[in-house]
Write a structure and sequence with these properties.
The protein is α/β, with parallel strands linked by helices and 568 residues long. The protein has 3 domains: 2-169, Rossmann fold; 177-275, Roll (Methionyl-tRNA Fmet Formyltransferase, Chain A, domain 2), CATH 3.10.25; 300-482 and 492-535, 2-enoyl-CoA Hydratase, Chain A, domain 1 (Alpha-Beta Complex), CATH 3.90.226.10. It is globular. Helix 8 runs parallel beside helix 10 (367-386) and helix 12 packs across helix 13 (448-457). The strands form 7 sheets. It has a 7-stranded mixed sheet, with helices on both faces. A 6-stranded mixed sheet has the order 17-18-20-22-24-27, sandwiched between helices.
Length: 568
């Protein structure tokens, strides 16, 4: 069918919906609904779609559109749930299970007849993590069911007046509900509030006499202090005491009127250091191989099971700053010092990596120079993976990967990918040529023609398409919570393979033959082009980066738009 996706942003769910529907043979266009313009009406008039789907829409569809066309709304709540803050309430009320409902647009919000619904579990994770994983899986299943039913023509959607539908209206989740009372709230209550707003909008609080939004929250089992007291720092995050324990907060976002010139998310310790240079929070180091009984936060961990090493990392938003790249490289070198035959890279869930840290770059005194330093640190990490010849390296993608993060995965010998993952193996939307050895690894995997198409079209790729293109070697059909166990099982099978020694030997032989044009030559050529972009103040990268970080219009046409603001 001809399907038009209408969305407020080309976010993770919209990208996945685009990729999955395309995989199923539908012709999919995307229009971004903008306030003050008529892009939706224009797109419908121009494209005449058979079906309109809104996977993520903050504004109402025009009445003349939903009256003339079947329009399906993806609502992140179970049947009968209504209101704009469904996931917020699910987390705040600690619901064990929630759901996604696909309903037909009508005048009343979320009141239309139901075309499909799919439940999902609610683990104790941040809202954005839940949205990209369990909720996204359920949304795709429900939308594909609804599209099939619509195409068949016989299905009659269930009205919400049906006795089986329990209608519950939930008001918008107000900021005040997440206010933390450090003297009275226990650790679990504070963690629930932090998880409910880990990405947007954060939890408004006060630190060092200034208002700030807290982003992310993780429990701490040993550090203690007066409720609300700052106790320590680690890996850019800060630890704060609760009345019965402590929590780690990885990122802060200064309020716009706080006087901070960079009012966007960045590592918590760097925000406080900018406000109070004399502040000395003690470092609280933990071993890379953290004991299983520890309940604390760290963004990089290593563990070993027999002949297999697991180097786990999880950075907020998948972004990797200079410091994070360097610490991950040091951890990788530690992993190489251990006697293993297989080394698995990647976190247990959510983002694998999205490449360099644009927020940290934007906040730097010299963003061009910080871009250059960050990129070189990322390249050093990728080069270390490429140069590993004494064992097999596997990139295990529990979540999405983009730009340099996707290329980090391609540096491994094998790429394993959860079936719900979306890849964006390109740099174009940020006005960059790219590095991380992509000119070496990407054509080697998919061929020069496909590599050119992927990097110029700059469209999202589903896990299934990535496997067909040979970007991915193995799909892992596991729910988000089951992915780590599935990876451990697959790694054990790989480590016991009778062909493993021959594959490792072949790596060394291939590396020895690459002296005519070694990987370092590709890096040098890529960096030369990136240096020119970084240090050209008129290059689109700077405006695009600033707009992305500060969430403001870029003033430049989006590279994914066609006439009337439509993505094709």
């Amino acid at each position: 069918m001809d399907i038009l996706l209408v969305a407020s942003a080309f976010n993770s769910l919209t990208q996945r919906m685009y990729a999955e529907l395309t995989d199923h043979g539908h012709r999919v266009d995307v229009v971004l609904a903008a306030q003050g313009t008529d892009p939706v009406r224009d797109a419908v008039r121009e494209l005449r779609p058979e079906l309109v789907i809104a996977p993520m829409l903050r504004t109402a569809l025009p009445e003349d559109v939903w009256r003339a066309h079947t329009c399906l709304i993806v609502h992140p709540g179970p049947p009968g749930d209504r209101g704009p803050s469904s996931l917020d309430w699910a987390i705040a009320e600690r619901a064990p299970e929630w759901g996604v409902t696909v309903l037909q647009a009508e005048a009343a919000m979320d009141a239309g007849p139901i075309w499909a619904a799919e439940p999902f579990p609610v683990p104790p994770v941040g809202k954005s993590d839940l949205y990209r994983n369990e909720a996204s899986d359920a949304a795709v299943t429900a939308v594909l069911t609804a599209v099939r039913r619509y195409a068949e023509g016989a299905y009659k959607p269930r009205p919400q007046t049906d006795d089986s539908v329990r209608v519950v209206w939930r008001d918008a989740f107000r900021r005040g509900r997440r206010r933390i009372d450090w003297e009275r709230d226990d650790t679990e209550t504070i963690l629930c509030k932090l998880r409910g707003a880990d990405s947007q909008p954060g939890v408004l609080d006060e630190l060092l006499g200034r208002e700030v939004f807290l982003h992310g929250g993780h429990p701490e089992d040993r550090l203690r202090g007066r409720p609300g007291e700052l106790l320590a720092q680690r890996a850019g995050g800060v630890c704060r005491a609760t009345r019965d324990g402590a929590v780690w907060i990885p990122e802060l976002r200064p309020r716009r009127n706080s006087g901070d010139p960079a009012p966007f998310r960045r590592p918590a310790a760097s925000v406080l250091a900018a406000w109070e240079p004399a502040l000395e929070l003690p470092e609280s180091p933990v071993p890379l191989e953290l004991p299983h009984d520890r309940r604390t936060w760290t963004d990089i961990r290593y563990r070993q099971l027999g002949d297999i090493g697991f180097l786990g990392f999880s950075f907020p938003g998948g972004a990797m700053s200079t410091d994070q790249c360097r610490r991950l490289l040091a951890a990788y070198e530690h992993a190489l010092s251990r006697p293993t035959r297989v080394l698995v890279l990647g976190g247990d869930r959510d983002f694998f990596s999205n490449g360099i840290h644009l927020n940290v770059i934007e906040a730097a005194p010299d963003p061009a120079q910080e871009s250059w330093i960050n990129l070189n640190a990322m390249d050093d990490l990728v080069e270390a993976v490429l140069r590993t010849t004494d064992r097999l390296v596997v990139a295990a993608l529990a979540g999405n990967a983009a730009a340099g993060g996707a290329m980090l995965a391609l540096a491994a010998d094998e790429v394993w990918c959860r079936t719900g993952v979306v890849l964006n193996p390109h740099y174009r939307r940020m006005g960059l040529y790219g590095s991380e050895f992509w000119t070496y690894t990407l054509p080697r995997r998919v061929g020069a023609e496909v590599a050119h198409r992927l990097t110029t079209e700059a469209l999202p790729v589903s896990a299934a398409s990535a496997e067909r293109l040979r970007l991915v070697d193995r799909l892992v059909p596991a729910a988000p919570g089951d992915f780590p166990a599935a990876v451990r099982q697959l790694a054990a099978e790989l480590a016991s393979s009778p062909f493993l020694d021959a594959r490792i030997a072949a790596k060394s032989a291939r590396a020895a033959k690459e002296h005519e044009r070694p990987p370092a030559a590709y890096r040098e050529e890529e960096l030369a082009r990136m240096h020119t972009i970084f240090h050209d103040p008129e290059a689109p990268y700077h405006a695009l980066r600033s707009a992305f970080v500060r969430k403001t219009p870029s003033g430049s046409p989006r590279p994914l738009t066609a006439p009337a603001g439509v993505l094709r």
